[in-house]
Amino acid sequence: MMRAIFVRFCIHLCLTAWLFAVHLPTPVTAASATADGTSLYAFGKHLLNIGDYYRAITELKRFSLLFPQHPQYPASQVLLGLAFQEHDEIDNAIEQFQHLSKTHAQTELDRLATFKLGELRFFQQDYRLASTVFQRFLRRFPDGPLADRTTYLLGLSLALDGQDAQAQNVLNTLSVHTPWSEPATTLQQTLKTPPPAPLKSTRTAGILAGILPGAGHLYLGKPRHAITAFLLNSLFISGTVFAFLEGLEATGIILLYFETGWYLGNINSAVEGANDYNLQQQQARRDHLLSTYAPSPLNLRQLQSPGIGLRLSF
Description:
Layout: H1 2-23, H2 30-49, H3 53-66, H4 73-86, H5 90-103, H6 108-123, H7 127-140, H8 147-160, H9 164-172, H10 181-192, H11 202-211, H12 215-219, H13 223-245, H14 249-293, H15 300-303
Helix pairs in contact: 2-3, 2-4, 3-4, 4-5, 5-6, 6-7, 7-8, 8-9, 8-10, 9-10, 11-14, 13-14
């Protein structure tokens, strides 16, 4: 009896020990954690390379949260910013590169992050702010990787902002040996070429409309508007004169009141028409410069090419 109880006790003890051993978690070593982090980083990078930007953002965020001490952590922050950019989350990309610039001051990461901040503003079409950021980059990193590319984009930003003279001065500083010299020279020639349609003077349009209703619109190349303005003002002026000649002062005053509105509206319309025309011409010029001379945004494949020159490993 005692022997049977002892045997059952030993069997139970062995089973308990076995179950405990099976369910005991495997100790996590530094080497295994690094290996897991490397695998997760590589997966996020792969997703970015194949264009699955949403999942790339998710995996790179997870890597950043779980492995902040991993050797590839700084590189992952660059990849996350690029993924935000490609996913059109520009504000998040700007915030990412701002943080990267602050936490890695005066390093290659800072150089890249500062450049990307200017480039992102450029593609947001905020050319004045882009110019400011590019100028800050060149003050901090006057030579080395991305300096020539930044100089070119600074010149293009100034041109797109309507500052042609400043753009010419900046583009003149590029060395003839840089790959950016040829597009810069072509851009300079374009800036020197007079626009196919000269801008209209708002003053001239207003004066002509004041001298003869409709003349301002004719100056703007709008004959239908010119005829309408001329006929309406002629009709009201004729009616006003006729009313006063016939002694119909009340009618004459009413007609004069409406004619004053038509007359001033004719002048205002001509001035606004000149402004609209000029804005359209300037926008057409910006669209041409942007489509012809703007390089594509710096992406991961370009960053991995030896021509960029950055001492960064992805």
